[in-house]
Batch of 4 targets.
Target 1
Amino acid sequence: MKPSKACQSGATISRRAVLSSAAAMVGATVLRPAATLSAVFPPAIPMFNRGRYALFPGAAEEYSARAIAIIGRATVIDMLSPLVLSFSKTLQWLNNPASITAAEIQRFKDSRISVFHIAIGIGGQEAYLDCVKFFGGWNGFLTQHSDDFLRITAPADLDRVKASGKTGVLLGLQNSDHLTKPDDVDYFHGLGQRVSQLTYNSRNLIGNGSTERRDEGISDFGISIIERMNKVGMAVDVSHCGDRTTLDAFELSKKPVLITHSNCRALNPVHPRCKTDEAIQKMAKAGGVMGITGVRMFVRDNEPTTIENVLDHFDHVAKLAGAEHLGIGSDIDLDGYDKMPPEELKQLRAGYKGSYGFRDKIDIEGLDHPKRMFDLAEGLIRRGYSDADLEGILGGNFKRVLKEIWTV
């Protein structure tokens, strides 16, 4: 969801300072008895009654042996989760990569998320330059912290990230304003970009966003961009695209198209960011995968909104298209929007049209913390999903489709 510059209703969220500063830096695991659980998740996990475990010393939460074992085996991929939502913290890390603390790095490892797709939305007249700075900044950061982070750019990286013990970072964008000609796709692919959402919420030269008043679909120029993305191995994402633009992408792309972070219109008819059943079915038919978000106003249009409502979206896609086309795109960082610095959260909210339907809270309790993947796994277990389904939803499905798209 996070924009750097919202191009709607005249509202602007400028991250120019962040990006300009950045430019200056140019094997299956089986659950063992409690005494040996440290082999799965060090440090040792104390066992409680009822076959449930606390993951970390002093933690109140307990998770089932089954959920822990599945996450221990899975390459867990969150197809939209910035390392940090705070603009000021992003600026701090990109200006001075050494400023990230050992404790902050450890939180990513403790989350058990193997790969974070850290895309944001960058648009406007300076999009090309701002995106060069964005990728330059993160490439510098990841190079300096190569002992702890692994930049994900190839199928082999997806295969090795779990065993490496490093946190995988996948570079993408939630807009394609920076792609001014087909050759730009090659250039940004060279900078490490592996996913590009065709539009953010507003119209660009490729197509139309979800909050535009009308959607005429993908332009001739957009077709040339998609063709080049297919050729070089850059994934097409339509999460924020309007309905017609979304459907056009499935018809035009020769490779699977992703919905990295969205929800189901059938369960929330009033929100433009949710996808229709037709779109979900065509996504699946084309071999794509859809990541479900935990953003409150995308999940349900009234209160109470709980984790059970989020699970309803997983169930809807599974019944409509099959669990093999399901994934996770949380659309938050480890802590969520509601814990952002108040002034930054106010600025972010101001960048969207009224149709976004913000309420008092953006996050959903139970999914607004670093161990949310365990809560999702527990919820999906309650809903009757098999271990194979769970491993696919937690990351295997996105791993499969990304490897297919990236293989050229």
Target 2
Amino acid sequence: MKKIIFTIALFFFISIHLLFGQTRPNIPITGVPEQPFVSLREVMLSKTRGWDIGLSIGSAHSLADIGGTRDAARILFFDAQLKATGLHYGAFARYRFSNLFALNVGINYGRIGGADSLSPVTSSRYNRAYFFENDLYELALKTEFYLPKKYLDIPIDIYAYTGIIGFYHDPRLTVPNPETHEPSTFSNFQPAIPFGFGFHYTTQGNFKIGFNVGWRKSFTDYLDGEAPRAGPDNDAYFFNAINLGYYFAPRMRR
């Protein structure tokens, strides 16, 4: 957990340095015609269409039948065990078609896990004593819907997204009595539907820094390698990520 926090913090401080460490001193230049003043806010608001590519790093969390904070699994973020937090990282390319929406394609990796020993002592999960880890490899296509500037006229883009994901996973399950445990059979390739929200800020140097949270609805109950009776619903997981990208302004036609 400490290594994950250190890695994310390092990535964040490097991003801040890239974004704000390239300002130039205000040195007057003689012999150059005076340019019309354009505010920083106007520059930021103008950078809405075109490509940006970047990297992301953050945390990965399981919402499965093993582990959790109560007896039965709960949806969204309320059942995540912070001590079982894994690392998430990825890369993305996004094309902004208009002020209102964009398409984002990305590849992501995340390690999720859970342990019944981290559940409350009063729950039935605690005595079951299962533990699992799972490495997830995603290919994601997401549509991002942006908040119109007329509602929040600031140089920060706020959006929600959904889409389709295909992922490969291979859970590693640890049980108290492996010699009597019969492994489950399931497909390693699965679809998922992401739901999330985020924001990003674009600097004068065309760097973008942002943050997003994304919940993945899966269609399998075997992200933990097992389908116990503790939870009737399919498993899920979510990523939190800091994003650092570079914006490529579209070329103006003459």
Target 3
Amino acid sequence: MNENAEQIQKDVSQWEAKDGDTSGACGHSHDGAADAMRHHHRGDAICIDNVSFSYPGKGGRAAVESVTMHIPVGTRLGIVGPNGSGKSTLLRLILGLLKPTAGRISVFEFEPREACRRELIGYVPQRAEAEFDFPLSVEQVVLQGRVGRVGMFRFLSKRDHEFARQSMAEVGIESIAGEAIGDLSGGQQQRVFIARALAVEPKILILDEPTAAIDEAGQDVFARLMERIQDDYAMTTLVVSHDLRAIVAGCDQVACLNRRLHFHDAPSGLTREVLSEVFEHNLAGIE
């Protein structure tokens, strides 16, 4: 845990030397892995090069079109855009759940699915009501993050339980470890799912609309939490949201997406012209 950027790069180099064949469970070929390594820029956590994707039956209209974005290790990136702008599609491409129609994506020099198999990415999805229907405790939910490391049918070790407790302490929920997930507030539930993602021991943390079920006070708490996680874990974070204010407040880079990438730089470089182009509506309430 608490690895810095140099250690992350060392880990990646060791994995490359140890696992030259990435054609296993994820079905990647040697050529695909080699291509990912060739186009990946050293020092970047994620490389997205001229990526497009179209869903079948959409009349050929691309959900994401010609997107190029290089995300350095340790970056706090916020991805903003209106509903239907391709934000969720881009996330699925980075997670390896979709394959680009054109272009390439690499995550620490691996193809996305291989990166996920290696537990390089921790993912916090949007609020999932189905999870709250099961009588799971907070600790049981967080321990789910260890299953990918030990295997579905193996017992969790003492270390796994200790790591889960450490993840809960990091986000301030160790005192409610025994409570049912369905009985918690939206802000508490969000912390549980962040702890579960941290329990994976990822190098990249991706959050999809993390402040959607949180009030304004809770959003301030969330921003401070993300800053602490960034400091303690030295990881790369991607936050996807339609809430521009939350993104600008908590990120050092912003990407504005509306099918195409309209802006990718420090928040200070955002202009009303760019925002108007991306959001395509009156920006009177946005400062």
Target 4
Amino acid sequence: MLRSSALLLIALVACASPASAASDGAPFPPSRQTLTVDGIARSFAVRAPAAYDGRRAAPVVFAFHPFGMNAEYMATRVPLARSWRQAIVVYPNGSGQPQSWQTTTGERGDRDLHFFDAMLSWVREHACVDAHRVYAVGYSNGAGFAYLLACERAASIAGLGIASGRLECKPSQPAPIVINHGTADGTIPYDAALDAATTWAAVNGCKAPPPPVPEGCAVARSCSFAPVTLCTYAGGHEYNSSFTATAVDFLKGRR
């Protein structure tokens, strides 16, 4: 029984080498890709770890840009690939003009959810990934979509990093989450972060949500299923650059 469990663990964490280029040991260079999803051409950029060898399963982080921005902006503003050198980082582009993301179920015919499904399938086909370590990070409107993934694609998401976002869906399954928000945010008020932290604390089986603090991070108390962290800074809706390292440190150990 123990031998069978060990073999199963190896199969989940390490990649064998079938005909797919994902596990033949070849390097996986940074690339830009376009997929047709629901009849629309959708694009994303991929940043692979420098040490990627195609044999050892890597974590994957999807990073979603704010309203009106794009993948290039997100890669520069939220340099996850630089902070987490062992991870494959995917920077997708939203849709429409200006570019944006759906934040509620059924909006836009769920085309952004379908786009996520297609990207995840592409990454699994072309890279050696740890299926238990797929994460979503978002800023502003992109954070709203990251929340939606936790609501609608909970089985695929191992943890969330939320920067200045608003929760507009109803989560039903626990998820590790770290939230960052400015007290002077005039676009999405700080109360949105408090409400989201309270909601997730209940879903994650915590005895109490993280208490609001003037600055810094606070954790929910005695969580049965997954942790909830709320980080506060004395600023507005601008991205708080220190959150990149905070999110990486939080997500690294979650699966």
